[in-house]
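Supplementary Data S3. Sequence and structure tokens for construct A.
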Amino acid sequence: MKQVYTLLLLVLPILISAQSNYKEAYYITNNNDTVYGLINFASDKTNNRECKYKPEKDAKVQVFHPGDILGYRFVNEGLFYKTKEFTLHDVHQNLFLQYMVDGIVSLYYFSDSDNLSYFLFEDEKGENILITKKRDKLTDDGYVPDIEYRNILKNSFMSNVSDTSLIDDLKFSQQSMIDFTKKYHEEVCTTGELCITYEEKNTDRSYAKFKISAYTGLSFNKYKLKVLDKNIEQTSPVLGAILEVSEPRLSQSFSVLLDLSVTRIEGNVKKSNYSDNINYKSTIGSFRMGVRYRYPKFKLQPTAELGFIYSKMFEGKIKGLSAHYGVIEYPDYEIRTGFVGIYGGIGVDYNINKDSFLFLRFTAESYGKRDSNELNEEDMLNMPQLKLGYTF
């Protein structure tokens, strides 16, 4: 097992590189020309600062910064980023902001380095109104939400709006701010002209992906009875399922996984110098939670994973163990039923299509050497596994 962990520690830094997630998109030049190609669909904070473009999959990457181009837009995802200059905390900013509404009052969205979300309204005069929502404060009366953004909007817009309820109950979300901006336009646009020329449709959207995998394989099980210095060993089938969660905008390669599996171990124990053979059977359930890295460049994709494991043996006794001249020396041997540790694994995935994979993986674990809450606290379990599975 130590060799597996060492290999993972050596391989992961080599595999980790700048992640990319290129999608069909276009950028708009400062001369209002539209250029189609592929643009990296990264996190909002990354997209606020740079646009990585290439005309086709294997072409060289060009990097545009705010001001180099007017903006860019993803074709299928719909997100539109536009160059915008403004002042935040007395510091001049020039960023690509997510364009939410284009109208008499335009609306933009971005998040800062502290993960605080901001909305920027550009009013009829071209002046910027910036709002944010700080984290809730804990007081003696409980958590108090920050609603200062409502007061800012009232001071800025209520002179032209008759219905104060538009702001009194306004939630701090993309869709709520778009709805407020649209209702504001309904109040001020009284001549019948088209006041809104663009509206973002993909609001408050999570791009997280969830994948299910099922697998079978072989589990090389070994249970050591420390007191008797005996081992129960057996190679048994293993069945399992995995829920894998990833966020492609942050990384194409890393994902969090939850893994449930079940196997069995059975055998017999014979104490030295005695003729008794005691048979034993147990079902072992395991829960793993870890992080997986997949190198996604080719159809055959190497993987590595590391995380925590909890294993439970569901039959907790070996009864009538080692009778000698009619005397049962271990009438009820309480086996150690719970094991907590860490695990690691390596493997390879074959990409059948965009979201489906066949995979072959090897995992092994290392549990704590003792559990003082159990009678036979030094008993040990070891069950490296070879798995063949399919990801849907």
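Construct B, processed identically:
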Amino acid sequence: MDTGIKTAIKQICAEKGLSEESVYETINAALAAAYRKDFGDKTQNVEAEFNPDTGVTKVFDVKEVVEDLTPEEVEYMEKLKAEREKIKEMLESGEITPEELKRQREEAEAKKTEAEESGEEAEEMRKFNPRTEIEEKEAKTVKKSYKIGDFVKTKLEIPGEFGRMAAQTAKQVIVQKLREAERNVLYQDYKEREGEILVGMVQKFEGRNIIIDLNNKATATLPATEQIRGERLKIGDRTKVYLKSVAITTRGPELIVTRAHSSIVEKLFEQEIPEIANGVIVIKGIAREAGSRTKIAVFTEDDTIDPIGSCIGQKGARIQTIINELAGEKIDIIEYDEDPIKFIGNSLLPAKITNIETKEEDKTAVVTVPEDQLSLTIGRAGQNVRLASKLTGWTINIKEAGSGKEIKQEEDKDASTEQAPASAGVTETAPTEEATEETKEVKEKKTKKATTKKKAAKKDKDDEEGSDSEEVEEKPKKKVAKKKKDDK
């Protein structure tokens, strides 16, 4: 006979993504809790069995058969029972407070621990729980075939009142258990997807944090520190995020996502570039300042494949998709090389490098560049050389070929990547004689150019003043002619 309950349970399981077994376990636990609350006894271990086909519930008192108690153990149990009754009376009369009782128990536990650590072995009595256990001799009065380890199931009578009140209690527990089961399923599902890219829609704003809806199943938090600088997301926008961490809380699973982490760049490259996804091209490192620029080093052992060209794609189609997803962030694709000198040179492209000197002991490199390439090598606010330093793992100092000025790397606290960042500071070193002569020539050229510009500007100014004076002379002539005409 189908009561419709089984169909409803199947529907709940389909909607919530739960297994039917877990739902039935939840229902049985809820019904047992409802019976225990209104009709149960403290010595009963109540378990319920619900039949979804008939809608009938059976309630049992389940106990495990254990070895019979010795006279000493019986005396010990009576003593414990008397102590509990005494403590209960003292609490009711106010002779002792719950805090004092807790302190006394903690002190007793501490003394027991000290005795164990000192090597004193106290004789421990076997603990017997009358709610979940039954002695073998007592079990044999029910059924002679019972032995130690068996379970005795005694059917309990269900009163007529086990209707509305029990159903209400069962309903509350069922709803709570189903919610917990749903949260656990959600947590396990997203915990396995940690480190993946998810697609979601901006649902709302909570202060500076953004709440992302993930396919109406769960919501994730995009903290302000994990957002791309300068990006303006609006409610309803669809965006890709990197699942950074999943934690379980009292309110359910907490999902933290990011768009500023360097891993999202790596995952986007894997999605858009098949050669990276199948392992032909390998990403060797990423240095990123979210919202501004990213440098990524790629490498392949296949001589027939151009790693940079494969990442860019035909007419830049592949890389442009990634750039658009990262709100227009600039991406430099660098070819990785085992030789640190070549790798450092590649990381500073498109600047032209004159010479690179390295010191293996402290992983420091001095890069010499022409004067006209200095600003290009350093980049805006030192960004180019800073990202190159993070990408290669070398401290890069820039030296101007003409003047001998050296730009050294120092720590930069504002960097957003995992490696130790640096900001550029200028320190002058003693220039050589050749450098001094080259500097004089450069200054003379600049002086000549400035003089030529001044002469040209003065000539233009004189021409403008001459034209203005002609206009001023014409105006009085017009006035005189008008006056003569009026006199006539």
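The first strand starts at residue 46 and ends at 50. Residues 411-440, 464-480 have pLDDT under 50 and may be disordered.
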